[in-house]
Amino acid sequence: MPDLQPLLQSLLESGRYSDLTISCEGRKFAVHRAIVCCQSSFFGAAVKGGFKAASSQIDLPDDELATIQRVVTFLYIRDYDDTGVPDIEDKKSVSGEDKGSHAVLLDNLGVFIAADKFDIAPLKQLARTRLINWIDENAQRLPFVVPEIWVTLPPLETELRDAIIKAISYHAQEFLNNDESIAILTDLPAIAIAVLKKKLMRIFFSNFNCRGCECEGGVDNDTVMYSVKFVCFHTEFDDIILRLIP
């Protein structure tokens, strides 16, 4: 099967056979309904009459141009650039410079929020993965970015919140060594409670062995925050309660 990505990228760059325009901050993207609308229920509903002049143009006045550019690019090539703003028309970078780690975080966060808004699940997962990787690699920066991430995330987004809690709990000593961190835990008590739960789980269950087979599996508390997930299935929850009580 031939690789369609170069063809789709060519259609995006040239605008050939475009039958839909997405407009943001004065920039117009000549796109194709068959490509855009089948990947996003938001855009699919828009062309059915949800927007002004919906038959030919979708205006996005509340979104940032750089984010929309990444969204549109992903719909054609299944990827996006989070190190700059690649210009679709002339293939040059708008910034032309390294934007820095914090800017990369904000770029991916913007894409994640947009993917949630436009209902583009693969893009949302890609942005989520990049955000989790950033959190894992930049734990020392968390005191300066956690509030912005936490309050921006959709209410039902648990994976990114879990990644934040995991990073804070692993680096609790460093995290608490500055005033910004104390302010975060004061202003966002849900974070403090979640970190405490995770730390307590690690203390209680890190050396727990199964009475049935004497395995050393213990508890997988790296990936589970609010419930206990046992590596060894011989162990019953009641057995744990009994063994925790002298």
Automatic annotation (TrEMBL):
Signal peptide residue numbers: none
CDD domains: BTB_POZ_ZBTB_KLHL-like
UniProt xrefs under InterPro entries: BTB/POZ_dom, SKP1/BTB/POZ_sf
Annotated Pfam families: BTB
Residue ranges occupied by any BTB domain in the UniProt entry: 18-76
Superkingdom of origin organism: Eukaryota
Name assigned to this protein: BTB domain-containing protein
Organism: Penicillium nalgiovense
